[in-house]
Design a protein that fits this description.
It contains 19 helices and eight strands. The chain is mainly alpha-helical. It has three domains: 32-125, Fumarase C, Chain B, domain 1 (Orthogonal Bundle), CATH 1.10.275; 130-164 and 182-226 and 238-377, Fumarase C, Chain A, domain 2 (Up-down Bundle), CATH 1.20.200; 383-476, Fumarase/aspartase (C-terminal domain) (Ribonucleotide Reductase Protein R1, domain 1, Orthogonal Bundle). β5, α8 and β6 (240-241) form a beta-alpha-beta unit. α6 (129-165) runs parallel beside α12 (345-365) and α14 (387-396) crosses α15. The radius of gyration is 31 Å and the shape is elongated. The two termini are 39 Å apart. Bound molecules: arginine. Residues 43, 47, 103, 129-130, 133, 337, 339, 341-342 line the site of arginine (ARG).
């Protein structure tokens, strides 16, 4: 819970307790903080989410301070067990957060001193909240990236499983949302897989730059104590230390980069969502979404709305918004730390939560997709989708492609006038367009033949789709 009992509402009493300031940083202050300002500048309402990583960082810091002789080993042990007890209290919901104590860092530190006494006040030696918070966010984000990657892998596997099952399923492929050429539905699903696999790579790449230790930077210039940053980094599992103290506390580019990766992923999800919405409409009728992922209408009894994909599509907007917020937050800050940076957390947290929710929603939904094979196949046959195959057949008879294109165009014009498909034209009608055309032409108009003929790496032939599925599994790694 958050204790606001002693924090009056903004418009009333301007102060917290009487003389001077009771803040951890209150030494140079004569007067108390305005109560609204206290609330306005606090971050504990949201940054308490970082508590486990804050405590993890403090334990490593205290351990390092003892290793270099700044703390005795008894002091270290007292501090470490105090921090562990506080973590257990917070885990169990037994901790009272205070807005007066501003943020997660000072809430934990005050609780530590309250619990273990004077020695608690030594923890903040050779440290500032500036390098502390930068460390907390990096630790937290690194864990979140690992969690998100796990969810993404589950979705990637679900896509490959479905793609393999649907390798032979014929779907009309579109360009300009006009029927273009038939493709394997599995092939389409593997296109989604490729998009998301690149997102996975981007996430891993961003993780590398997140994986560096700011602690030791102090407020901005470093510290006068003989710290061992490599040890702290090792204790926290960081791959390396931030090389410049000013940069360590000032930049949040790793968070921006993460949000950029998340935005791209959300754009991909949004495109997938859009297709799911279209395909599940009466007009397309290619798929049926499971009831568990849809809702009804309060007025129209017949409705079954694709809410989950629609929400995923809609949520892309907030993540892209967070990216813009973080870029804008950073762009005019002079080095080094500025309080502006406190505003990094809510967009970052919401980005993680939104992405995580969407990954879960799609990871659950994809395996339940019901595919309406006959509808897909009928749609793939309509709209002269094998016209290119007809032209390719003419090329094999020795006709230059540009001329073949014109011949097929003329055939399509006749079919449009007669309101029939190319296969419904007679051989005589076709031979009137080019005498070299023979019976074989009809084989080239078949949608399954059209799929099978694109038999090369990256092509839509079912045999290639199956090979791509096997390769895809190897690329993601074990489940
Ligand atoms: N709550 C602050 C933040 O999120 C912690 C760092 C505060 N540092 C300071 N010099 N006021 O950025």
């Amino acid at each position: 819970m958050i204790d606001r009992a002693s924090s009056p509402t903004p418009s009333t009493a301007p102060t917290t307790p009487a003389v001077g300031s009771d803040k951890l940083w209150g030494g140079r202050f004569d007067g108390p903080t305005n109560a609204f300002v206290e609330e306005f500048t606090a971050s504990v309402q949201f940054d308490r989410r970082l508590y486990a990583h804050d405590i993890q960082g403090s334990i490593a810091h205290a351990t390092m301070l003892a290793a270099v002789g700044v703390l005795t080993s008894d002091e270290r042990d007292t501090i470490v067990s105090g921090l562990e007890a506080i973590r257990a209290d917070i885990d169990a919901g037994r901790f009272t957060w205070s807005v007066q104590l501003e943020d997660v860092h000072m809430n934990v530190e005050s609780a530590l001193t309250a619990r273990i006494g004077e020695v608690g006040k030594k923890l903040h030696t050779a440290r500032s909240r500036n390098d502390q918070v930068a460390t907390d966010i990096r630790l937290w984000l690194r864990d979140e990236i690992d969690g998100l990657t796990g969810r993404l892998d589950r979705l990637l596997h679900a896509l490959v499983d479905l793609a393999e099952r649907e390798a032979d399923t014929v779907l009309p492929g579109f360009t300009h949302l006009q029927a273009a050429q038939p493709v394997s539905f599995g092939h389409h699903l593997l296109a989604w897989f490729e998009m998301l696999l690149r997102d996975r790579e981007r996430l891993q790449d961003c993780r590398k730059r997140t994986d560096a230790l700011p602690l030791g930077a102090g407020a901005l210039a470093g510290t006068t104590f003989p710290i061992d940053r490599a040890l702290t980094a090792r204790l926290l599992g960081f791959a390396r230390v931030c090389e410049n103290s000013l940069d360590a506390v000032a930049d949040r580019d790793f968070a921006i980069e993460f949000t950029a990766c998340a935005s791209l992923m959300m754009v991909h999800f949004s495109r997938m969502a859009e297709e799911l919405v279209l395909w599940s409409s009466q007009q397309f009728g290619f798929i049926e979404l499971a009831d568990a992922f849809c809702t009804g209408s309060s007025m129209m009894p017949q409705k079954k709305n694709p809410d989950v994909p629609e929400l995923v599509r809609g949520k892309s907007g907030r993540v892209i918004g967070h990216l813009i917020a973080l870029l804008t937050l950073m762009k005019s800050q002079p080095l080094a730390y500025n309080k502006d940076n406190q505003e990094d957390k809510e967009p970052l947290f919401d980005t993680v939560d939104t992405l995580s929710g969407c990954l879960r929603a799609f990871g659950d939904l994809i395996p339940t997709l019901e595919v309406r094979h006959a509808r897909m196949r009928d749609a793939a046959r309509a709209g002269f989708t094998t016209a290119t195959d007809f032209a390719d057949y003419l090329v094999r008879l020795g006709i230059p492609f540009r001329d073949a294109h014109a011949v097929v165009g003329a055939a399509v014009r006749i079919a449009v006038e007669r309101e029939c498909e190319l296969k419904d034209l007679t051989l005589t009608e076709l031979q009137a367009l080019d005498a070299r055309i023979d019976e074989q032409v009809f084989a080239s108009l078949d949608v399954d033949a059209a799929l099978a003929a694109r038999d090369h790496r990256g092509g839509t032939a079912p045999i290639q789709v199956r090979a791509a599925c096997a390769a895809a599994r190897a690329r993601i790694g074990a489940r």
